[in-house]
Amino acid sequence: MGYDEALARYEPVLGLETHIELGTASKMFCGCPTAFGAPPNTQVCPVCLGLPGSLPVTNRAAIEGIIRIGLALNCSVVEWCRFARKNYFYPDMPKNYQISQYDEPICIDGHLDVEVDGETYRIEIERVHMEEDTGKSLHVGGATGRIHGADHSLVDYNRAGIPLVEIVTKPITATGDRAPLVARAYVTELRALIRTLGVSDVRMEEGSLRADVNVSLMPRGATEWGTRTETKNVNSLRSVERAVRSEIERQGGVLAAGGRVVQETRHFHEDTGRSTSGRSKEEAQDYRYFPEPDLVPMAPPRAWVEELRATLPELPAARRRRVQREWGLSDLELRDVVNAGAVDLIEETVAAGAEPAAARKWWMNELSRRATEQGVELAELPITAGQVARIQELITAGELNDKLARQVFEGVLAGEGGPDEVVAARGLKVVSDDGELASIVDKVIADNADAADKVRSGKVAAAGALVGAVMKATRGQADAARARELILDRLGAS
């Protein structure tokens, strides 16, 4: 069913479960390292492999990280909680159970506000709990990278046991046709918040931030929610939006045809923007939760929680309000800066000495264009905020103009060195010496007699053609303002 038709007949209800790998040096319950990309099965030990007789020990840094996340999400940190065993068999679960939390999470009842098209949506947080990550299966020989059609599968347990935070929203309603945008905005804001806290790199492409998208539809005017599906491990912000949209269209078609939506997990396909059925969705009782016998309950001291609260940095929403005020941005300009991922870069450039307007101009125009051409994020360009500030400093000092500055950016991005090295190597400094510039002006006047005569007769606008000729003769390196002054002086029109 088409998206608009589905929304005309049904009201979407969303739920989002995000899993965030914490950036601790060691795993949740053992001392194994957590570096991404190590050779398979080289970062394991008896504890994270669940070998008989091994005992887990809780990672204090991980607990600190999750409490700070909970506080930043306006949650209550409970006075007592404990771990549970979540029992299920899957090849990437070496113990055949996962140490998680069930009915006694560490953080509850929070919220995160997001903005879509000028309207604020409050996303209620049900719980923030901690667990250990699973290993990773690699299915070899098939066309899709999934188990169906593969010749064989390999398992890497390096990831097993890495501290994992799960953030679960309450049902999200009243979003209407903005449902996909609200879902994307929530994950975007959550990623920015976690990155600001410094507890995870939240790289979706590396799996340190993964989102599960729950969608159900109910007929307009109904009071009972429909059956939900869960699209697992959506791994980009764009795909979060697409997964919600495609599931609304799919469920709308099923219901309109008189069918029944099945509670199940689904797999999202980046190439088609559609999902396929995975497995029937388990209920809590299917996991046979029971308290983890090898770990004592936790009672975070109130004084410790308040100490951690005091470590919270300026959070993204407050920071956006501040930079908007300090930089004099309109709501639309701020939105563009945020959507481009340029807030950090501009602020760092300003801290390095550039004016906000100049810093924004270069990051949002020249550098944003180059990032788009290369298909990378703005922050991934091989140029630093300090280098951008230095280029602007050369412009302010009259040693570069905007045209030459673009060539300097080109050289820095090409790996030719820092701004000063590129300027020296390419000979890009503005020609501002009056003696050298005056001789060029005299030649241009002689070569363009018609334009010169117009200026002499009072048509000062004709000087623009002469300035253009000077700029061409100097390959854009002349000081255009000074060249104009010399032309008008030479022609008696100053």
Explain what the structure shows:
By secondary structure, this protein is of the alpha+beta class. The chain folds into three domains: 307 residues, no CATH class; 111 residues, no CATH class; 57 residues, Arc Repressor Mutant, subunit A (Orthogonal Bundle). The protein is 39% helix and 19% strand. It has 16 helices and 14 strands. Strands 2-5-6-9-1-10-11-12-13 form a nine-stranded mixed sheet. A hairpin with a 4-residue loop joins β12 and β13. The protein is elongated and about 95 Å long. The relative contact order is 0.10. The model has no long low-confidence stretch (mean pLDDT 89).
List keywords for this structure.
16 helices, alpha+beta, 494 residues, EC 6.3.5.-, 3 domains, nine-stranded mixed beta sheet, protein biosynthesis, nucleotide-binding, Aspartyl/glutamyl-tRNA(Asn/Gln) amidotransferase subunit B, ATP-binding
